[in-house]
Amino acid sequence: MNNAVRWSNDILAFVLELGALGALCYWGFATGSTVLTKLLLGLGAPLLAAVAWGLFAAPKATFAVPLVAVLVVKAAVFGAAALALYVRGHRTLAIGFAVVVVVNTVIVTIARANES
After folding, report:
1. Where are the transmembrane segments (predicted)?
2. pLDDT exceeds 80 at position 1
């Protein structure tokens, strides 16, 4: 794969990861009914996602796990983010986000498999 395409997809992947954390944060603060629940959900959901990502899905993850496990973590984080947007009424954004995530994940996964 061309280096420019690879870099572009890696940058897009990073932006999508940040978007997922933002969506989870937004969902938590918008969903909570009290200040405490807003804080717990708004900070806890993205924190939980970031920890799981860092442990298992990041390029330099703490634990080297099989590709299927990485994809499961990615699906859980991105799926939760898309669902968070969807349930907060941003259906078009949620669907668009999910489509871009799937396309990007397929491209990045294929590129990394071809490097091995």
Report:
1. 12-29, 35-56, 63-87, 93-111
2. no
> d(Cα 73, Cα 57) in Å, to the nearest integer?
6
Provide the angle, in degrees to the nearest 10, between the axes of the packed helices 35-52 and 3-31.
Answer: 150
List of E strands, 1-116: none
Helix 67-87 vs helix 35-52: crossing angle, to nearest 10: 160
Q: What is the CA radius of gyration of the chain?
A: 15
- 6, 17, 62, 76, 103 from 109: Cα distances, Å: 11, 15, 19, 16, 10
Residue 41 class from Cβ within 10 Å (0-12 exposed, 13-18 middle, 19+ buried)?
Answer: buried
Q: Could you count the other beta carbons within 10 Å of the beta carbon of residue 81?
A: 28
Instruction: For the chain, give every domain's residue range.
Output: 3-115
Total-model pTM: 0.93
